[in-house]
Amino acid sequence: MCGHNWIGVIVIILIVVIGGYFLLKGRYETPAPTQELTPAPLEIKPIPPATQTVITVQDQETVEDQVIIQEVSFKDAGYMVIHLSQDGKPGSVIGNSALFASGTYTNVGVEVSELQEGENSLFAMVHIDDGDGVYEFPGDDVPAKEGDTIVVKPLTVTKSAGVVMEVREIMVSGTEFSFNPASITVSAGEQLKITFRNDGNVIHNFKITELGVGTNTIASGKTDSIEFTVSASGTYTFFCSVPGHQVKGMEGTLTVQ
Ligand SMILES: [Cu+2]
User: CB-based burial of residue 196 (10 Å sphere; 0-12 exposed, 13-18 middle, 19+ buried)?
Assistant: First the structure.
């Protein structure tokens, strides 16, 4: 056999092998089945009725006039009711929940009135609805009992004043060509209100490009304010962006610690 024939045989073998490979590949590679995007059916489980009335509640702190009942089981449809403690016993009612069907519920919030700052001695009690779906007490919506005992739990709710974010106000004056003060130091996370006043004779502004904040360009004698918070500590340059003013000295530093 001469060399030409060998080459021919090898070429034919290659064609058969490669061709066969692709033929079989095409046959056995079934396309991925298209998945139907059907959402899993939402399971809405009806709340099973409770067989007895139980209250589980812990002492708690709040900034709002709200009491959270960790868990409550209503044997009969009723209301979660909060009483003030008077002489160590349940006194006047300071709040009630909406009507609950029989069942067990967790983290039931009850809006209340008359919480004093500091400790409040309260009682959590279940009152049974008389059938009209409207809370009435004194009236027909009487406290729930297990046996002969009223279901009631004492609790202490400590109310603290809400945290009021104070805004730090800073006044900055601009003239030809400087800022006063030229350096400002604040704390990270502080809410800032910078009021820029143009004490010069020509227009100026106050910009911090790195923070994306800045006042309008204002005329002599005018003021403009910006409010912002810087969460990352660092050093930021403030300047007047009117052409030529920064290089002449209208520049300063905001240091965030
Ligand atoms: Cu300027």
Answer: buried
Instruction: Map tokens 């995007």 to a residue.
Output: 37
Q: How far is the CA of 228 from the centre of ligand 1 (A)?
A: 21
pTM comes to 0.49
If phi > 0 it is left, if psi is from -120 to 50 it is alpha, else beta; for residue 177 that is beta
Compute, in angstroms, the gap from residue 166 CA to the centroid of ligand 1. 30
- 167-256, what's its fold? Immunoglobulin-like (2.60.40)
> How close is the Cα of 72 to the center of ligand 1, in Å?
65
Q: How far is the centre of ligand 1, averaged over its atoms, from the C-alpha of 25 (Å)?
A: 73
pLDDT at position 24 is 56
C-alpha 60/C-alpha 76 separation (Å) is 27
- 3-state SS assignment for residue 207: strand
Q: Which CATH architecture has domain 54-159?
A: Sandwich (2.60)
The mean per-residue pLDDT over the stretch 65-82 comes to 94
Per the listing, tokens 């610690």 go with 257
At 185-221, the pLDDT tens digits run 999 888 999 999 999 999 999 999 999 999 999 999 9
Q: How far is the CA of 244 from the centre of ligand 1 (A)?
A: 8
Determine the distance separating the centroid of ligand 1 and the alpha carbon of 217, expressed in angstroms.
8
Q: Report the Cα 171 to chain-centroid distance in Å.
A: 32
What residue ranges do the domains of the chain occupy? 54-159, 167-256
Beta bridge partners of 110: 67
* pLDDT interval class at 237 (50, 70, 90): very high
Rounded average pLDDT over 125-136:
91
